[in-house]
Amino acid sequence: MSPPMIVADPSYGRLKRLVIEHTGLAYYADKDNDFAARISHRLSARGVRDCTSYLRLLDGGKPGTEEMDALIAELTIGETYFFRQSEHFDALRDTILPEMLERNRLTRRLRIWSAGCANGAEPYSIALVIREALGDSAASWNVRILGTDINRRYLAEAEAGRFSQWSFREEPERLRSRYFHREGKEWVIAPQAKTWLSFLHHNLVSDPIPPAGEAPGFDLIFCRNVMIYFSQELIRATAARLYDALAEGGWLVVGHAEPNAENFRLFQAVMASGITLYRKLEARQPQGVLAPAEPPRLPPVPPRAIAAAQPAEKPRPERPRQPAPAPTVEEVRRLADRGEWRSAASRAQKLVEADSLNPAAHFMLALVLEHTGSTNQAVQSLRRAIYLDRAFVMAHYHLGLILERQRDAKRARRAFENVLELLGSRAGDEVLDHGDGISAADLSELAKMHLELLNKR
């Protein structure tokens, strides 16, 4: 059947609802042509004539389960590579790992979950970062890294640990030579680098959260670019489940397009290496610890007694008060990095008032407003930054992210197109201003990813 015929099939709506409910891929809810094209591939592969027959097949025990797996392989996007979006791994090395090691120094145990791991490049990258950081002490730590995915084909590739040359386009050569050996056109990961890892078929939407072994919860969860395909309601429900799956003090890493104060309101947002991390920190008093006693309150001394006890002084001329120094972009960024959002918002507002023609000031205010949930005001601040500097590429990108979340596809698309246009004349390795270390090539890849998603809507 052709895609138009599939869409016109009386059972098409029931089929689409079944698949979306099973997978959570609300991305396809308003993309009938794209969804029907993938259904058409499966109908042809199985020799099925219509949607009713295909529904009957999916409901047919083990063959139905196998066919659903094949359909999921058609519907999901598993393109990944080692150290993709390297700033996440910089944050792992510089911020997350030191804290995890200190928190678990007595048990010397780490539990990590890579949810939506695709072909395994992500959990293997996590393992390499930890091995490099621990060095000779790695053998004394009990580390378990679980990779899960809904796509069984990807999991089989992850288990095999065999990768093409293209999977290493971001990995340092020294790590490849240390942890991999070449077999023909493929690179195979060394056995010692696989010892911490295990893989499990898991549906993030419907399956129970996998256990963290004997630990009270996971110390770290990577769940990147998985929830961008979910509905808003499912994103919030999934975020809550991930929160429950973490140990106290545990960390959640999501994709560049996913940070949102409302969706992750249970977590504490932490800025590190130019990205937003989320941490499970419950504000509660530890048991057995007493609150400090209040200092004794003394009766007030009458003003006359104070005056009588003080020798008379000649009035002194008042010195002119020095104005408080104006805030800087760096000061606002430091406050945001520490999670002091209220102070950051106050200083960012004063920065804009003091230097209203500075595009970086409006951009910094926009970032703070975005992270505190004031998205409409953030959009206004980003537009002011762009008005003052049309070539402010990071402002265009963040504007696109917010508009995409607000489902303003037309304006979001234009913002990402502006990003690509501005980056067209720049060297790929150029580090972008106010991008916290992100290169022109990396930002270009992210903009293209968002455009691809928007153009399918």
Essential attributes:
3 domains, 457 residues, alpha/beta, Serine Threonine Protein Phosphatase 5, Tetratricopeptide repeat, Rossmann fold
Would you give an account of this structure?
49% of the residues lie in helices and 12% in strands. The chain is of the alpha/beta class and 457 residues long. The protein has three domains: 73 residues, no CATH class; 194 residues, Rossmann fold; 127 residues, Serine Threonine Protein Phosphatase 5, Tetratricopeptide repeat (Alpha Horseshoe). It has a seven-stranded mixed β-sheet with strand order 6-2-1-7-8-10-9. A three-stranded antiparallel β-sheet has the order 3-5-4. It is globular.
Total discrete domains: 3
Secondary structure: number of strands: 10
By CATH's scheme, which homologous superfamily of the largest domain applies?
Vaccinia Virus protein VP39
Poorly predicted regions: 283-311
In CATH terms, what is the fold-level topology of the largest domain? Rossmann fold
Report the C-alpha radius of gyration, rounded. 27 Å
Q: Could you give the distance between the termini?
A: 22 Å
CATH-derived architecture of the largest domain: 3-Layer(aba) Sandwich
The CATH class of the largest domain: Alpha Beta
Strand order of the largest sheet: 6-2-1-7-8-10-9
Fraction in helix: 40-55%
Strand content: 5-15%
Please provide the ordered H/E string of secondary-structure elements: HHHHHHEHEHEHEEHEEHEEEHHHHHHHH
Task: Please count the helical segments.
Answer: 19
Largest sheet: 7 strands, mixed
Overall structural class, as computed from helix and strand content, comes to alpha/beta
The average pLDDT score comes to 83
